[in-house]
């Protein structure tokens, strides 16, 4: 049986870390956008413009990944509250504790993690 209390603590800590990361990323994106508005940068023809566009693209991708990760963490916390944490959502088999250690938000056993079955 999985120690749901321990994993709840781990998930809550990771949730807080991700919320801070999201705030930082939003701040970074906002500051770059504000700086772009105040300058006369032509992204297509200015050597620095492509760098700025790339950095915004990277920050936006990280923001999306962090949001998705936060949703996965929230879903895992809901499974803990429902008493279903640690069981595969597809087959109902207990997820090995080692897998939960590596990915505490996972809803799938190893066999279903990559959609093999």
From TrEMBL:
Keywords: Metal-binding, Zinc, Zinc-finger. It holds the Pfam family zf-dskA_traR. Coiled coil: none annotated. A zinc finger (dksA C4-type) spans 88-112. InterPro entries: DnaK_N, Znf_DskA_TraR. Gene3D superfamilies: DksA, coiled-coil domain. SUPFAM superfamilies: DnaK suppressor protein DksA, alpha-hairpin domain, Glucocorticoid receptor-like (DNA-binding domain). Residues 83-111 form the Zinc finger DksA/TraR C4-type domain. This is DnaK suppressor protein.
């Amino acid at each position: 049986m999985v120690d749901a209390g321990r994993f709840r603590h781990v998930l809550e800590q990771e949730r807080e870390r991700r919320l801070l990361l999201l705030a930082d990323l939003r701040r970074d994106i906002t500051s770059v956008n504000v700086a772009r508005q105040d300058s006369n940068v032509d992204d297509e023809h200015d050597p620095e413009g492509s760098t700025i566009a790339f950095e915004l693209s990277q920050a936006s991708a990280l923001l999306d990944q962090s949001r998705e990760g936060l949703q996965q963490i929230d879903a895992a916390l809901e499974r803990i509250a429902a008493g279903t944490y640690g069981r595969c959502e597809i087959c109902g088999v207990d997820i090995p504790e080692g897998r939960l250690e590596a990915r505490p938000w996972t809803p799938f056993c190893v066999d279903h993690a990559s959609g093999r079955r």
